[in-house]
Amino acid sequence: MSGYKHIETVIARYIAGRYNSVIETGAGSNLHAANLLFRAGVLIRCSDIVVPQLSLSIPYVFDDVFHPNLSYYSDSDCIYAIRPTEEMIPALIRLAKKVRTDLYIYHLGFEGTDCPAPVKGCEVPLHHYVKIKN
């Protein structure tokens, strides 16, 4: 396994072993990690500013992290984002703090030089920005 699917598989495995209810923000149309979490029995939902035009088995809503609908996120154990734009990161941190849930981010590149170190026990550099639940 290589490339993005490997990254998303590792992230899904890591999150599935720690959380029961998660939300992927900025999911776009690449739902590999979300589908793996769904198949693992994790309650998964996705959000983005564009809902993909494909058949979805995972709940997916239009939501803007810069002006989020807090009720959509309030009962989750974890929010995660895979390769979000750098501008989204402060909004994601504010969102996670407001709804008091953990936040993980896998970076697009090397942005976020002030980000926390990658979490231990994960094969890819996944960063745990907000620690509330785990």
Can you walk through the features of this model?
- α1 runs parallel beside α2.
- The protein starts with a helix and ends with a strand.
- A six-stranded mixed beta sheet has the order 3-2-1-4-5-6, with helices on both faces.
- The mean pLDDT is 88.
- The chain is built from four helices and six strands; from the N terminus they run αβαββαβαββ.
- It is globular and about 35 Å long.
- The protein is an alpha/beta fold.
Concise synopsis of the structure shown:
Helices cover 28% and strands 22% of the residues. The protein has helices at 3-16, 32-39, 70-73, 88-99; strands spanning 21-25, 43-48, 60-62, 78-82, 102-106, 126-130. The chain has a 6-stranded mixed sheet with strand order 3-2-1-4-5-6, with helices on both faces.
Tell me roughly what share of residues is in helical segments: 25-40%
The major pleated sheet works out as: 6 strands, mixed
Physical arrangement of strands within the biggest beta sheet: 3-2-1-4-5-6
Give the CA-based shape: globular
Order of helices and strands: HEHEEHEHEE
